[in-house]
Each structure stands twice: as structure tokens, then as C-alpha cells.
Amino acid sequence: MIELVRAADCIACDKCVDVCPTSVFDRTDSGIPVIARQSDCQTCFMCEAYCPADALYVAPRVTPLAPDEEIPEDQVGRYRREIGWGRGRRPGSLVAIGPELPRAQPPRRG
Ligand code: SF4
Ligand code: SF4
């Protein structure tokens, strides 16, 4: 569930507002979006993936953090880093781990 827009890093591009499928964010006059409808978040990570400033944190769970739970600094923008989106990063698809897939013969032509 979306937990944080880190204002200090946000560049006010509104990409998170545009990609969120459930309109969780509201635009503001300052340019820094606010989390207006947290309970509508479906934890899809799209906003975090698209944020060019690594300014968002989506917790990998479907309920909000408890009031006394702190967000570890190194978790902010981590999803985007892990999937390798962003300039100079290695695409996550190149380092993904999965089962060995059978190599089929290419289909015959003609
Ligand atoms: S995780 Fe998905 S649903 Fe939740 S705020 Fe981000 S884009 Fe919207
Ligand atoms: S995508 Fe990131 S940088 Fe752009 S407005 Fe949203 S939080 Fe700010």
C-alpha cells in the first residue's frame, strides 16, 4: 500500500498521479502530489516504478503501516531500483531468477 511521497525528492512531474489506476493521489498547487485516498491503493507499485525521482514508497502489503512503524530510508524507491528502471540501471529482467524453461525447437517453415 502506498505510504509515502517524499517531498524533498519529488520533482512535481505528476507521473504518479497519471499512472495510478485507482486515483489515489491528488495534484496540488505546490506540485507535490498528496496521498488522498490511501484505502483505494491496490499495491500495484506502478507509481513507484514510474517515479523518476525515487520519491515514493509502496509497502509490499495490503494494509497500512501501523502508526509506530517507520519506513526504512533505503526502502523508498526500492521497487524501481530492483526492476532496474531509471538511467544507468541494469534492467531487472536480465538478473531475474526463475525456473529453467524448456527450449523448444523453432516452428518449421513452409
Ligand atoms: S501502488 Fe498502484 S494503486 Fe497504489 S498508489 Fe501506487 S499506482 Fe496507485
Ligand atoms: S512521480 Fe515522483 S517525482 Fe513525479 S510527482 Fe510523483 S512523487 Fe513526485
Automatic annotation (TrEMBL):
Annotated keywords: 4Fe-4S, Electron transport, Iron, Iron-sulfur, Metal-binding, Repeat, Transport
Span list, region Disordered: 88-110
Domain of life: Bacteria
Domain 4Fe-4S ferredoxin-type intervals: 1-30, 31-61
GO molecular function, one term: 4 iron, 4 sulfur cluster binding
KW 4Fe-4S (keyword) present: yes
InterPro entries: 4Fe4S_Fe-S-bd, 4Fe4S_Fe_S_CS, Fe-S_Ferredoxin
Designated name of the protein: 4Fe-4S ferredoxin-type domain-containing protein
